[in-house]
């Protein structure tokens, strides 16, 4: 029964995916600027014949409906198109850059969960204490600070002045990761290359903290709010009346139900971390998909922008599906 409901959710998301594809296809082409003019402008003096030939090669001389038809037919074959900016297939470009983006997003999510959840739980248990007031004050700062400002300030302090972390990139020059998964931390663990692991973590920690700072504050506040409500529920009172130790009351009874709103926020924010980390990747020179898309937008590289946005949309759909599945694990009474 659960599998059927999950399938229903997936099928329901298909019309939204198609609508998203049409909107992206149209809006990208409505942006001011001609990709052929941009590309030829970088090449110097060119003839009108060369401009027309490139326009035909990119199918930009055809009506929008025909361009869309060409793109959809290629998509059904697994072909996302050809990037005129990178001079390579879009699928290959995304395949190279996406692991870096996923690694950064997962690191930011891990930091947010490891820090935000305990802060939220302790703040609820010690309501109105000095810890609660201090933690909620810092959470306001985490929500209000822009990622680009926080990244620059962190880079100036920890990289430039203290020299604890590198300024940018994923690895130091001269280090070559094994060609395994594309996730440098995981590859270093699999290869048992501890020098590579240390260097990869030094490059990862500052962008991950910058990316996860806002989510840490959100998780802390949502967890605190839901925990305060759960701690006053009847089943918590009944557990205490049976002499259950307080730590079990908090962790096994209250936290399990309080996690439901936190799972919702975290699942939605996972898509934001993957799709909204362009600023962080640009600030830290992180060679991920977000930084690549920024350049593609300015260059009007239609194929690359469309492929990346489709991947981001798929990430949001999968994140929502994962939230639905986790709901039933946290509370079996909930229906998908």
From TrEMBL:
Keyword Calcium found: no
The UniProt keyword set, sorted, is:
Cell membrane, Membrane, Transmembrane, Transmembrane helix, Transport
Q: Where is the ABC transmembrane type-1 domain?
A: 98-327
Provide the topology term for how it sits in the membrane. Answer: Multi-pass membrane protein
Q: Which Pfam families match?
A: BPD_transp_1, BPD_transp_1_N
Gene Ontology BP terms: transmembrane transport
Q: Where in the cell is it found?
A: Cell membrane
InterPro entries, A to Z = BPD_transp_1_N, MetI-like, MetI-like_sf
A Gene Ontology cellular-component term:
plasma membrane
TM spans (from-to): 12-31, 104-125, 137-158, 204-223, 258-284, 304-327
Q: Does the keyword Translocase apply?
A: no
Q: Which family does it belong to?
A: Belongs to the binding-protein-dependent transport system permease family.
Q: What protein am I looking at?
A: Oligopeptide ABC transporter permease protein
Taxonomic source organism: Symbiobacterium thermophilum (strain DSM 24528 / JCM 14929 / IAM 14863 / T)
């Amino acid at each position: 029964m659960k599998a059927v409901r999950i399938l229903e959710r997936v099928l329901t998301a298909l019309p939204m995916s198609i609508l998203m594809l049409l909107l992206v296809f149209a809006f990208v082409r409505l942006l001011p600027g001609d990709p052929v003019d941009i590309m030829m402008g970088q090449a110097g003096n060119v003839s009108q014949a060369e401009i027309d030939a490139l326009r035909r090669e990119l199918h930009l001389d055809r009506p929008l409906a025909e361009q869309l038809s060409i793109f959809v037919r290629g998509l059904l074959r697994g072909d996302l198109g050809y990037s005129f900016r990178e001079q390579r297939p879009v699928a290959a470009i995304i395949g190279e850059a996406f692991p870096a983006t996923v690694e950064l997003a997962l690191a930011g999510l891990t930091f947010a969960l490891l820090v935000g959840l305990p802060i939220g739980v302790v703040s609820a248990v010690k309501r109105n204490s000095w810890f609660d007031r201090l933690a909620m004050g810092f959470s306001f700062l985490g929500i209000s600070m822009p990622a680009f400002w926080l990244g620059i300030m962190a880079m100036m302090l920890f990289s430039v002045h203290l020299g604890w972390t590198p300024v940018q990139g994923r690895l130091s020059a001269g280090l070559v990761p094994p060609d395994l998964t594309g996730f440098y931390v995981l590859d270093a663990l699999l290869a048992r290359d501890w020098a590579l692991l240390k260097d990869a973590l030094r490059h990862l920690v500052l962008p991950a903290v910058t990316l996860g700072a806002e989510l840490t504050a959100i998780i802390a506040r949502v967890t605190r709010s839901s925990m305060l409500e759960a701690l006053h529920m009847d089943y918590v009172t009944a557990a205490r009346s049976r002499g259950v130790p307080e730590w079990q009351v908090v962790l096994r009874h209250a936290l399990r139900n309080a996690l439901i709103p936190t799972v919702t926020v975290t699942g939605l924010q996972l898509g934001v971390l993957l799709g909204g980390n362009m600023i962080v990747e640009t600030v830290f020179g992180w060679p991920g998909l977000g930084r690549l898309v920024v350049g593609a937008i300015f260059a009007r590289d239609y194929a690359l922008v469309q492929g990346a946005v489709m991947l981001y949309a798929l990430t949001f759909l999968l994140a929502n599906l994962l939230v639905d599945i986790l709901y039933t694990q946290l509370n079996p009474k909930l229906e998908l």
